[in-house]
Write a structure and sequence with these properties.
heterodimer; A: mainly alpha; MetI-like fold; B: alpha/beta; six-stranded mixed beta sheet; 9 helices
Chain lengths: 219, 250
Amino acid sequence: MNIDFSSLLPYIPLFFKGLLITIGFSLVTVLFGLLLGLPVALGRLSPKKVLSAPAGAYIEIIRGTPSLLQLYLIAYGIPIAFGVSMPIFLAGVLALSINSSAYVAEIIRSGIQAVDKGQMEAARSLGLSYGQTMRKVIIPQAIKNVLPALGNEFVTIVKESSIVSIIGISDLMRVADIMKSQTFRIFEALIFAAVLYFVVTFSLSKGLRKLEKRWKSHE
Amino acid sequence: MNENSVIEVTGLTKKFGALEVLKGVDLQVAQGEVLVVIGPSGSGKSTLLRCLNLLETPTSGSIVYRGKTLFGKTALSEKELDGLRSDMGMVFQSFNLFPHLSVLDNMTLAPQVARGWKKEECETEAMRLLAMVGLSEKAKSYPTSLSGGQKQRVAIARALAMKPHIMLFDEPTSALDPEMVKEVLNAIKDLSLKGMTMVVVTHEMGFAKEVADRVLFMDEGLIVEQGTPEEIFQSPKQPRTIQFLQAVLP
């Protein structure tokens, strides 16, 4: 057997730096994904075709193509085709948050549709406009519906973000790659990265479930 | 148009796909009048009520509200429509309180957002209305902690907070446990005594007899018969009315 976990020791600070980058990257991505996803969801739900049709197409196209392809397209395809420079961190965040926004949009849409129809009617009958009703009545209730699913989306992004190591962002996965090529300790490097990923995703899911329970008990 | 009319409906029809729910309804509601609409399920009475404030868009006909054409040849802008809607209070069968807001916030949201009234004034008015429906101590409560009857009384107070000129009630007691029907009907009765113009769709015949100025019997999308409670309940003329009343009255 050729396993030696002590080979990890010199790389531990690097791994934790990678972990921080993974977490930070995921946070930024989920935030942008949300900011992009909300208008897409509202567009999708709009009674106006000029809004709902493009929003629907956006969701279908993003969800129907590989995220790795989207990443390459933004990191390499667009900069070369249009002669713009694209910092890799920005390219990574853009690609993953655009990808995430399509899923987030569907989460938000179903959360909004789960709000009782009578809420819209009551608010409109009181004279609130469609927009005011959305802002003050529907969305605050939809948030409660969508938070668990959004939490899961964050967990997904933490894992999915490992693909950005390919374009050179020094996230957790990339650190494992570096150690691999320098020491040929492939097994140890991957196992340690796996443990760190798992600790983050597992505690996130656990924490989210706790939060959810607390909300439920408040109802 | 009659000087005294708050609402004047002419030739109103409503189709849901191939199904014609309203087949040409003419209706006037006078200032201060309490109009009670009765009829079997599926007769179109709720649809008629929901057309009055355009929660449902009619298929044809016209609705004139206080001299303004709500629906008809000329279309109103969304903004004008919101303004007119806020002038017509509506109470629903299923209460439709906003569960994420306290009772007080339920009542002050629309006056602040849609009318732009000051928060303190809205709250003072809300507290006055809550006292009127006997729920002052519930101002800080959330809807989930209220009984059905309390919810509906809050819903009535919430609609009144907009200072509407007319109140529309869509089967306000149908979702209530029997022991709570009375407190809600009493709240509605109090309003009628204060001279509020009201259209009430209900299955409560006792209430119709007691409170209505005029009773309107609908069946299959048409007004079959209308008159004072005495006329409708003691000496109905149309066979459909007689048949219906025999079925529902003890």
